[in-house]
Amino acid sequence: MKKVFVILCCALLCVNLYALPFDSIESEMKARIDKSMKIVKTNKDSKIMADEIFALFDFMFDYELMAKLSLSKEYNNLDNRQKEMFVSYYKKSLQQNFASKLELYKDNTIEVVGGEQIKENRYNLTASIVIDGALSYIIFKFYPKNNDWLIYDVDIIGISVVQTYRSQFADILKSSGIDGVFDRLKSGELFAEE
Amino acid sequence: MQKNNFLSLIFSGVINHYRLTLLLCLSIFLFFLFFAFRISIDASSESLVYDDNQNYKTYENIVQNYQGSDFLLLAYTPKSGDVFSKDSIAFIEELLQKISKLDAVQSTLSIANAPLLKSIKDFSLQDNIKANANILSPQIDINLAKEEILNNPFFKENIISEDSKTAGIVVFLKSGFDYSHTIDEIKKIKNSYKDEMYIGGVPLIVDDIVYYIKSDLLVYTLLLGLILAVVMWLFFRNLSFVILSIVVCIFTLVISSGIFALLGYKITIVSSNYISILFVVNISLIIHLIVSYLENIKKYKNADKKRLILITALQKTTPSFYAVATTMIGFLGLMFANIMPIVHLGVVMAIGVLVALIFTFVVFMSFMMLVRIPREVEFVSLGLRILEFSSNIAINNKLRIYFVAFLCVVFSVYGIRYLSVENSFINYFKSGSEIKEGLLVIDENLGGTIPLEVIVKFATNETKDSINDEFESEFEELAKEDKYFFSEEKLRIAKKIHEYFLENEYAGSILSLHSVSLLLEELGLKPDGFTFSFLYDNLDESLKSQLFYPYANIQQDELRFVVRILDSSSSLKRDEFIKQVKLELANILESENVSFEVNGLMVLYNDLLQSLISSQVDTLLFVMLIIFVLFVLVFRSFKLAIIAFVANMIPLCVVFGILGISGISLDIMTATIAAISLGMGVDHAIHYIHRYKEEIKTNSKETAIRNSHKSIGNAMYYTAVVIIIGFLTMTSSSFVPTIYFGIITSAVMILMLISSLILLPRMLLIK
């Protein structure tokens, strides 16, 4: 299971400060992944490392869209303030998960394998990671926004992060409504923890 | 008169052409004998269901949708008290090697070959998984292995008892095999060791029931035949009558069994007593004919043999016909049960008693022509004193008789309120028997015996008000992929239901998707949707078929919970328990968007019993009404019909009252007693009143009663004695329902005889 989280965190390492034009997705991703791997190997405090890595990758992810998709149709029922809060907590949840697993990445390497435009407005970039001798894959899913491309989901060993959140949120919404979702996001219990 | 002429013509034909008749009978006998040997016995759960049972359809779907297989359980309690000692493990391994070689064995699971995931010291989880180790692997830390086995939700109460003193060996069986041979082989292997070992599991129960039914069929046929011969000899001291009785009984049995086989019916736990019942009906008919014949020899001193036989046959036609008709009605009442084996029993017995009536008369007439019966033959009235005594009581103790009858009614009403029905497999077998001991050890130490299953079906997700957005559609499509089946909602519901059963005092082993969650927790992993999706997407098929397929069906959008219920629990009231489980699950799942069904063998057998009881209650009134109408027809008097009716109902109710108070529960076999014994028991009253009506033509009421006791009383007494002895032979069975059936029916018959000899004549004296 360690493998799962290593890959999840590696995926989050790839957050970019800027959006990408289509032609530079692969090269930009490669460069930033390499930089982030160097940060991981510096043995700094994990909180500091996490901040540095997020500073590198942050704006490559469309958190707002990811949060919206994760909450599905319920997102439209939120008022603007709630939406803002939700996106903020959602992002924090992802980052917390990432920071808590940073120790696990030290001995691993992520390499960009290549990308594929699966349809006009979708591009999947595949990266590989070797954990304990086994090769696994991470797929970054991009979509075009204002002439740039942003990540709206990541598949880790074939499992969609957004889909996992959707499943969790749908169940919490059913049992304890949107307040329950906020409570769980604040508590940091969501998504995969080892 | 016309009827008598017609019958007289037929009977004369039989008597005049008795050799031809016997030859014809022999041909019919041989024809049915051919089929009678093909009759088969079926004790499987499938044999006990009725066609339109929704629960059975669900059960079939479960079998089809989930990869479940039959299994046997072996329990091993080493004398050293340590199942994890080297010797114990080596012993289990040796046992596994022998069992695995058997044809019908698919796989085995025990502490000796259970896969261990965290018992190699200083190995990561991945390395542990890669090592594919079990307790016998050299690198295993035995203490870690012990701890892992005791805490693994799939092993606990399956292959290891909670006190860790008993190890279980689960033997999974291949489908499509006849397990009988495999069970015999496993028993042989088990018996070749001196250590304390037990065997259990539903296939074993089924196999042992079949064995008991088979041996009972053989024993009863021989024993009843022997008893019949002895009793007939004691009564009549004439070899011809003994042979006649046996010939008639064997004849009817073979023809009825042939019909059973020809109709494609199988003998089941419910219908296995048909031989005893047919014997009894036959004996009753033949004794009445013989007694009447002997009376006629005395009465018509100058009549020749042909005439005597004809007179006897004609005299007994009406009471015998009505006696058989009431018995048939009793059995036809079983047809309302909607349960195939019960319906089959009803059909076959209704046909069987009709065959018995026809052929008893035909064989009696032609056989009597064949043999030489000395005219001076004197039957020994063993019960003369009893008959005289009972006629005196009936005549002289009006108030006492009515008072006792009143007390019986009060007692019955009180007792019947406590009547219960239960279907405990463990209690099917005698205490001290090998199977019962094995079932008890496994039930108490290795997680129960009888499977109860819960299927939770998730409602189809609404799509009509979903956001019509490309991203939304993309994720909705993605959610349909198998790996995303394990949503948080499903895991939460699985946990709720699993924990509900954990709290239930009657639930033993519980396996469900939540067991996988517990296993993941044991391994230090968070059991959430992501982990499940990941595992489902990455595990190989063999692991998936152990962890997921038995508990989740993605195509059907269902979860399955397999619970084994503690069959040996004395406080378990199965029907109430199932109802309570349904009610409590409905409460637990009230706010969820799911439907659920409670199923499994426990539900199927309970359905069977409840359906049997409700149909018996529903139709008993109908049977009683028809019998009453028959009484009116045969006696041509409402008063006599009511008297006969009351005289039969009181003893029947008393027996059920006794059952209620003594706490003996009715089961699948004994539940049919009411209808069967009512049908058989009323024969006494029919014969008695028929005779009484003859006597009253020329005598006072008291003399008519005394004469009836002396004449027909003899036949009734003999019949009852043979019937009671016949049913009491059932107590030699190792199958407890058969023993109860024998005792209860004998009790009904004794009370009905007493009632027919005391209460019935007393009521006939009413002016």
TrEMBL record, chain A:
Keyword Signal in annotation: yes
Pfam families (UniProt xref): MlaC (PF05494)
InterPro entries: MlaC/ttg2D, Tgt2/MlaC_sf
Coiled coil regions, renumbered to chain: none
Record keywords, A-Z: Signal
Signal peptide extent: 1-19
Keyword Signal among UniProt keywords: yes
Entry protein name: ABC transporter substrate-binding protein
Taxonomic lineage from the root: Bacteria, Pseudomonadati, Campylobacterota, Epsilonproteobacteria, Campylobacterales
